[in-house]
Amino acid sequence: MKRTLIASTLIAATSLPTFAEESKVIDPSDLTQVYTQAAVFVTSDADVRVSGMLTGAWNENTQFAGFLEGNFGDSDAKQGKDSMGADYLGSRGQYFQVHAIDNDLMPRVGFMTDIIHQKNAGLDDNLLFSAGAIGLINPKYTGGAMVFPNVNYTVGEVFGESADGYMLNLFTTVPVGDSGAFFQAWPEYVKVTGDVVEMESTAFNMMFNAPIKSDRTQWLMTKLAYASADVVLPNGWEVENEYELKAEIGVKWFF
Fold first, then answer.
1. Are 72 and 88 in contact (CB under 8 A)?
2. Which among 174, 134, 171, 170 has a CA at the least distance from the CA of 152?
3. For residue 202, which of 233, 232, 244 has the smallest C-alpha distance?
4. Residues linked to residue 230 through DSSP beta bridges, in sequence order
5. Cα(159)–Cα(122) distance, rounded to whole angstroms?
6. Which of 55, 191, 227, 254 meets the CB 3.0–4.6 Å disulfide criterion with 203?
7. Three-state secondary structure along the chain?
8. How far is residue 65's CA from residue 216's CA, in Å, rounded to a whole number?
9. Residue 95, strand partner residues
10. What digits encode the pLDDT tens for the residues 173-222?
11. Phi, psi (5° rounding) for residue 218?
């Protein structure tokens, strides 16, 4: 059910854009920083994801970013027979704002709002609004790793039916060497319910990202996701899915 599982929409919402502050060395490992960027990714489903982000600052302690993303592929692809295509599959727009605060435990916090659209073969589209928060726990309390708790509330239409729910993530970033490369891993849990539809998803994600250029303006981005989602469709049909391993590779440019 490549094109009909809401999990692919909601997991995309928790796959945060990478933020890096303009006045410092580019560091995509820190999810509470901002920087202008563009990216292209290819997934193991043979889909293509393109994105871009513009940034600015309200004052010296508050930065903001506007993010747009589009997903394209073969909308007629059959299960297990993925193929390249240029059909529109979905999109996402986000406003993100990050604040430096006088707090020893959590020195930076960010807030985001998302609008997410996804096409579903044979079913009505998903159109969701999401609002959430993310924070950086001071690394001196986490053994030098960067840990980012994230919570989101989501409401909108799932397969044409009204629904709402929440998403929980716990991102952990560990640097590798001195080049800026890093591992990032996070579990995520998503639950959305309506009068008819329902979805519950669990995923375990891991990324390894490394700069291609010494000035860190170009990066190789890789991701593995081991995920499963159970859904109830508008006709009452219950779908229970096995865990699947999916991969993604791409290049991101910072400006």
1. yes
2. 134
3. 244
4. 200, 240
5. 10
6. 227
7. CCCCCCHHHHHHHHCCCCCCCCCCCCCCCCCCCCCCEEEEEEECCCCEEEEEEEEEEEECCEEEEEEEEEEEECCCCECCECCCCCEEEEEEEEEEEEEECCCCCCCEEEEEEEEEEEEECCEEEEEEEEEEEEEEECHHHCCCCEEEEEEEEEEEEECCEEEEEEEEEEEEEEECCCCCCEEEEEEEEEEEEECCCEEEEEEEEEEEEEECCCCCCEEEEEEEEEEEEEEECCCCCEEECCCEEEEEEEEEEEC
8. 20
9. 66, 113
10. 999 988 999 999 999 999 999 999 998 999 999 999 999 999 999 999 99
11. -140, 130
Q: Any idea which residue has 């563009």 for tokens?
A: 38
Q: Which amino acid would we find at residue 228?
A: S
Q: What is the pLDDT of residues 51-100, one digit of tens each?
A: 999 999 999 889 999 999 999 998 877 766 667 888 999 999 999 999 99
CA gyration radius, the chain:
18
In the block, residue with structure tokens 């993100």: 96
Looking at the DSSP assignment, which residues form a beta bridge with residue 15? Answer: none
- Only one residue has tokens 């291609």, namely 212
Closest CA to 191 of 165, 218, 155: 165
Residue with tokens 């709002």: 113
Torsion of CA 148, 32, 37, 56, to 10 degrees: 160
